């Protein structure tokens, strides 16, 4: 049983259900997290990220990278080429896998490359112009002649 109940958040807010769902997924221990294949997530610039996945033994044709429903899906399926081979030890795993990474708003995939057994997926956060901070110019009020104000006060 988990220690957090997000029901009050659902009842008291509008539009924050994605955050509550994300927290619910993170805190749920019922589903075992897969550990294969190993991966890194690094921040390469202020608004740029890279996901590197170890995919030794897979070719470009075996790998699939796609974005759907706000998530990055990476999967691989190796065609069985082991007919007629007898292994004494098999330590290189080439089993099929599927990894899913939830993407934040305004994050898009800008490219993917496969080199030296590593699949690199580059991501970029692109904030729309409407959401970027902007400076508002302050207009100067018309200069009021000080003598005229004083003259009115005297009269």
TrEMBL record:
Gene3D superfamilies per UniProt: 2.60.40.790
Keyword Metal-binding attributed: no
Chain ranges of the SHSP domain: 30-141
Pfam families on file: HSP20
Taxonomy, superkingdom: Bacteria
Keyword field: Stress response
Family to which this protein belongs: Belongs to the small heat shock protein (HSP20) family.
Protein's name according to its UniProt entry: Hsp20 family protein
Source species of the chain: Marivita cryptomonadis
């Amino acid at each position: 049983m988990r220690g957090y109940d997000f029901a009050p958040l659902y009842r008291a807010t509008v539009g924050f259900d994605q955050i509550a769902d994300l927290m619910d997924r993170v805190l749920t221990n019922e589903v075992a997290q897969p550990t294969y294949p190993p991966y890194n997530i690094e921040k390469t610039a202020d608004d740029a990220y890279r996901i590197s996945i170890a995919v030794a033994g897979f070719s470009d044709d075996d790998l699939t990278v796609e974005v759907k429903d706000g998530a990055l899906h990476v999967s691989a399926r190796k065609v069985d080429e082991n007919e007629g081979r007898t292994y004494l030890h098999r330590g290189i795993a080439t089993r099929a896998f599927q990894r899913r990474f939830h993407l934040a708003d305004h994050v898009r995939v800008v490219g993917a490359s496969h080199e030296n057994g590593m699949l690199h997926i580059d991501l970029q956060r692109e904030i729309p112009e409407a959401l970027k901070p902007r400076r508002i110019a302050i207009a100067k009020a018309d200069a009021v002649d000080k003598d005229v104000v004083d003259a009115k006060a005297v009269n």
